[in-house]
Amino acid sequence: MVKKILLGAFCMAQFSLAYAIEKPVILPVVSNEVQPFQKVPKTVIIKTKKFKIRIDKQPNGKYLYQSWAANARITSKPSMIISDGELIPDGSGGNYYFSFENKGYNYQVWRNYLTDSATKAPYTLAVNDENGNEVVRQDGMVVKQ
Questions:
Q1: Does an H or E element contain 130, and which?
Q2: Measured at the alpha carbon of residue 44, what is the angle toward residues 41 and 48, in degrees to the nearest 5?
Q3: Using alpha carbons only, what angle is made at residue 138 by residues 135 and 140, rounded to the nearest 5 degrees?
Q4: More exposed terminus of the chain, fewer Cβ within 10 Å: N or C?
Q5: pLDDT, tens digit, 9 for 90 and up, residues 101-135
């Protein structure tokens, strides 16, 4: 009787292995695109201590940067316009930044999803000169998204 039970269990194990369906392994996607869970708005307006900044996604997939003085109306003419900006993902946690070049200066507007501080502002403006020296760093709050 014990032999029959062991033989039955062995046969069932063999059939189970023979008919098992192999599941495909899903590997993480490595690319320069922001993953779908990282929602990037088509338009965002932020305000720092000295600036109001509007970033818009253009039909060609690039981004447009417009800025005003902090106390200026956004309906007035911008003090600076930079086109052909890029969206650059930063890690896999959702952070990313927009990068714009203008007259040797690099303007980066960082989206801070994951930070080491609960009080960290959702955006940060960083401007570097042609030598890579940081000339401006200001945290910004969302005015409109």
A1: none
A2: 140
A3: 150
A4: N
A5: 999 999 999 987 766 666 668 899 999 999 999 99
